[in-house]
Design goal:
Two copies of one chain form a homodimer. By secondary structure, the first copy, chain A, is an all-alpha fold. Chain A is built from 14 helices and no strands. Chain A is globular. Chains A and B meet through helix 9 and helix 14 of A and helix 9 and helix 14 of B. Chains A, B: Belongs to the nucleotide-sugar transporter family. CMP-Sialate:CMP antiporter (TC 2.A.7.12) subfamily.
Chain lengths: 353, 353
């Protein structure tokens, strides 16, 4: 099961505002929406919902297929490339795809204030922050294995769900209803339950420094996600592809730093592309697309939707793996999936009016 | 963990209306309550709540200490008495305690229509039904072990939670809100999760006849509980001790039948009290008191409260066992307990207005 989670970190890697001004903006957006709805417009409301649904589904499907590619590549015994070079290529590909989308938009709509690539220091200054947070988190990851084993780490990573919820509330000042909070706690419990196996109890023996590191990593990861949403939503009319372009440029830069810190020797001796295979290429392609889907979810939905989407993807992956790899589903998986399903229901039933 | 569940069957053994007339009655009671509340009375409302709370807490505490007694008696290796004779004594003791309570009430309040022991055929005709349902279920229990092992049976017994909810809705025609249904599904998942161990997955290999028997047993147990509530609530002003007395008389009769069917040889050869110990006496005492608490919960609350109460008791037992017997709590237990706690919250937050 650990593979399903493995990629979760990487796909939020990419994205990176000035929080105070966001709060003002989102308030304006909300009042505009209400004004439009009361004016009997409603059709733009519907477009928003449709767009939200499409990007959420895309993220879910891409995340599941990512996990399946990882299982596949492990089964094929091909996992010998350096992860940092792959991450760098993912950022580069996302940058290229954003530029490609922008050239099409410029051709159709012309260059406007909202879709021009050039930016101001004021707009761009916050973009490196999420990428820097992820870099720091990935470096910590090397040290936590002194305190927790790999399957234990996969269990502890579910703390990300709680940290995202708490930081979403504190930083973005968005409210969840009590029922939605109940749903969020259940999401965390359900995902963990679905991953339980006979060795899971070892995680309870984790020492205090291990717990502290796991919590710090969950906070860094949650903070990076929430901060990305803040940056992207600060300028609602700004084209998402421009915002992505700048996020990914800094993603490239920070991943270049990661190559130097973590894999300098391997790259210098065996070459940048050592160990790459067809599956690796597919994985890079998939990571790039799902990274873009994450940005879209941040733009048109929020971090909560993202967490639900990637959690449901984890369950989908296991079900698909039954057919593809003859996986056996455990009773714990069925119980966890039921809890996650109820949690999804509670999130929608508990909406604040 | 299997011991915690073991006793659950026995404590609802005791109790057993005419459903159509109940629906009419409970409607009248509800409107009386509303009328009293709107008249600014409220104090009788408060008394009701207090009584409900007291009987629920009593049931929870008695059920946990029951389970602890069972663990204790197994640890001491003393579990050699025949369960049917113990059950018969439990019913007899409950009968005696009801009579004792009634003599005190007669002394204080005098004999009235509501507290006199004599009854009509119309009142008493439905009282044997719950006891008969339990007898039938306990006989089935001997056959299910051909299809499921004992730990697997403990897992399947959580189906009782769902069957009680469904039959409560269908038979008593009482509504639960969608949020409360979500809570109820979670209660079932949470209890099962808390009981997971490395062998639990075997239950998924249960054959079709095994599943059918488990579902039939869950329906019989749920039906007996719901039917008991119907009988007791049919005559709201009737003293609960009189209702209990008649229920327990039939409980004694049906348990006498069970002795003949299941343990005739053992009782004939080794005597009625063979294998009894001090712990056995404590267990019989505890079962009798918790049986009475179940009846009280049926009178002043309902089957849903009873299910929550006994489920929370199961978790309490495990926590207490950590201190008493050096039990180790599993990660699954923590996850299951959290899900059960959220479920209790949802049951109260989701109340229909």
């Amino acid at each position: 099961m650990m593979e399903y989670r493995k990629i979760k970190d990487e796909d939020d890697h990419d994205v990176a505002s000035d929080l105070e001004s966001l709060k003002g903006k989102s308030h304006t957006v909300a009042s505009t929406n209400i004004a439009m709805a009361t004016l009997g417009g409603g059709s733009s409301e519907r477009t928003n919902w449709k767009r939200k649904g499409v990007v959420t589904c895309a993220l879910t499907i891409l995340t599941s297929s990512q996990a399946i590619l990882i299982v596949w590549s492990k089964r094929a015994g091909k996992y010998e490339y350096s992860v940092t070079t792959a991450n760098f290529l993912v950022e580069t590909l996302k940058c290229a795809l954003s530029l490609l989308a922008l050239t099409r938009i410029w051709k159709n709509e012309g260059v406007t204030d909202d879709n021009r690539l050039s930016t101001t220091y004021d707009e761009v200054k916050v973009f490196p922050i999420p990428a820097a947070l992820y870099l720091f988190k990935n470096l910590l990851q090397y040290y936590i294995f002194a305190y927790v084993d790999a399957p234990g780490y996969q269990i502890l990573k579910n703390l990300n769900i709680i940290s995202t919820g708490v930081l979403y509330r504190i930083i973005l000042k968005k409210k969840l209803s009590e029922i939605q909070w109940a749903g969020f706690i259940l999401l965390c419990c359900g995902c963990t339950t679905a991953q339980l196996n006979s060795n899971s109890d070892r995680v309870l023996q984790t020492s205090l420094p291990g717990w502290i590191m796991a919590i710090v990593m969950a906070l860094l990861s949650g903070f990076a996600g929430v901060y990305t949403e803040a940056i992207i939503k600060k300028r609602p009319s700004r084209n998402i592809n421009v915002q992505n372009f700048w996020l990914y440029v800094f993603g490239m830069a920070f991943n270049a730093i990661a190559i130097v810190i973590q894999d300098f020797d391997a790259v210098a001796n065996k070459g940048f592309f050592h160990g790459y295979s067809f599956i690796t290429v597919l994985m890079i392609l998939n990571h790039a697309l799902s990274g873009i889907a994450v940005s879209m979810v941040m733009k048109y939905a929020d971090n909560i939707v993202k967490v639900y989407s990637t959690s449901v993807a984890m369950l989908l992956t296991a079900v698909v793996s039954v057919f593809l790899f003859n996986f056996h589903l455990s009773l714990a998986f069925f119980l966890g999936s039921t809890v996650v399903s109820v949690s999804v229901y509670l999130h929608s039933a508990g909406k604040l009016r």
